[in-house]
Structures are given as structure tokens and as C-alpha cells.
Amino acid sequence: MSDPAQPTRSPLLPDRYPQGDFFVCDIFDAVPKADMASMEHPIFSLSTKPDTRIREYEHNGIKIVIKPSVDGLATVHDRDVLIYCISQLMTALNEGKEVSQVVRFRAHDMLIATNRNTAGTGYGQLKAALERLAGTRISTNIVTGGQEIFRTFGLIESAEIVRQTRDGRMQEVEVKLSDWVFNAIRSKEVLTLHRDYFRLRKPLERRIYELARKHCGAQREWRVGLDILQKKCGSGSTIREFRRLLTTVIKEDQTHQHIPDYAVSIDDEDIVIFTNRQPGRGIGGQAVAPPLDPEVYEIARALAPGIDVHFLEREWRDWLPEPPHSPEAAFLGFCRKWAHNRKTSA
Predict the structure, then answer these.
(1) pTM to 2 decimals?
(2) pLDDT tens sequence across 45-58
(3) CB neighbours of 22 closer than 8 A, spacing ≥ 6?
(4) Domains along the chain?
(5) Strands ordered across the beta sheet of 170-177
(6) Residues pairing with 266 in the sheet
């Protein structure tokens, strides 16, 4: 029998790869970002078992039909691959680099960045995720990048395992993103996610965080009816079962405050309320630092030659876990580490 005096286990997955040095920021470990269109609409399945149902969704003039392959719909956890690719491309764009729809990355880097297991099961799950992402087809009139697209496409157009080690594990992966996702990236229709997003165990927790991030943002509060929230989550449960599942998440969050950035509650009229935990701070895990002394930019240019210091400042502000005691010194330390990591990874 458990001891009621002992704290219950956190709903979050363990942080498998904690950051040992606050200022270490590698280009292969970019700030997590997701496209706003699939944060808004229920593209991904909440099921942990193969979901082979055709999903039709319509809201405020947007119509989406999502068709699975025989492997089932792409899941909320499969979305990690897209988040990783989007994050890499946004980092490159912010540095003024040319990007393309084809993204090549080391499987090991992706697994670490998304807090996944790097044992054999992690690589097998990544391969299965690529197959579901390529097999899921979408017909929609969602607007991205100022274009209204009426056609059928996959979340990714193709995926290829470029190299394998002798024991069969993938080393490098090449993914070609769909026009729809790539248009969102080029138009910078993306939002930063809290790094603890990858530690959320339940697909429903991830989905409600995405919706809160999209709709509440930096506002103090966002309210939505339970029926609309269920629709936006893409849940196939009855409204009664969805209320029960959501209430379980809410009770756990009241105990552990594990949902990043936002507290969740529900009132007697089935209105779900998302409240910004710290309205004075940034969203996505970053803290707010005051404006920097203008003279610090010249020192930063010397520490990181050839890199846009204003881009570095944006990345630094995204990265901050807490307000620094000395913003100028913290920013310069970040620039020094960034330049060092860039040089050693070249």
C-alpha cells in the first residue's frame, strides 16, 4: 500500500538528456517550433494504437479530410519528426541561409532533441513514424503562406534512410516535407514550444498544450467550450468520456503543474479555461530579459563574427529558462558558446 505522505510520480517523462551547461546551444539542438496550421486543426491521431478511420473536420470555413494508410494515421508523437525538421529550418532561415524541402539529419540527434530513447526501440519507432507521416493524406483548403491550397498531400512527401550501421540502426535520415508544411516555414507561420512538450506522456496532454499555445499564447486566459475543444483535439470519444479524460489531466496538473506554460480547469458549464501561469514571462519556456545595453552588440559581433547578433539575441531570449542576474554577461556568454559550437560542428 502506498504511503499517502510520499509524493506521487510526476506525469512527465524523465528528462533523458538534461542541459549540463546553460549556455550550450548547438545548431543541431534548435528551439522547438511547430507550424500553426496543424496546431490549430486536428491533423494527428490521439490513439496509441493504429487508427485507420477517415477523419473529417470542419470549423469556421476550414474543411479537412484526413485519410490514413494501412499503418494508420500519423500520431501526435509522430509529429516530433516534423517539429524537429521545422526547428532546424527555422534556425537556418533566421541565420539567412537558403533552405529546401529536403531535410537531412542524424537520427541520433533527432531522438535526443525530442527526448526519445536512443536504444534500438527508438530507431524502430522513428522508422514507423516516417511511414505513417508519409502514408497519411490530407485534403484541405487551409491557407499557409498566403496561399489557399485545395489538393491532397502527405505530411511528408517521402523519407529515406541514407545510411545504416552494421547492426541495422539508421544513422542519417532524409525527409522531403510537403509543400503545405514548407510554405508555413518560409512564411514563418510557426510558434515556439516549451521543451517539456516532449516530456508529456499522454497524447491528449500534448494536444491541449498545442491548442493553448496557439489560442491563449501570451494572453492571460483562453476559454473554450468542451464540445469545441473535443472537436479541435480530434478525439473520437463520446463527450462524456472526453470529459472524464480531460478531468484526469486537469487533476494531475493541479497536483504537479506539469502542463507547460498553462494551467487548465473546467467549470460547471463545461467551459474549459486555460490560464497563463506567468503572464509577465515569455511563452515556450523562455524567460523575459530586459533590453540590452547597445554597446554589448559590438562585443557580440567580435565574439561571433559573421553571425547576425540580433538573430543570436532572439535565440538567446528563446533559450532563457529564468531571468539572468546580468543580462549583458549572459548574452555574451551565449554568443561565445554559439560561435564555439558552430566552429566545432562545421
Answers:
(1) 0.76
(2) 999 899 999 998 88
(3) 321
(4) 33-192 (no CATH), 200-276 (1.10.10), 296-345 (no CATH)
(5) 102-106, 170-177, 156-164
(6) 272
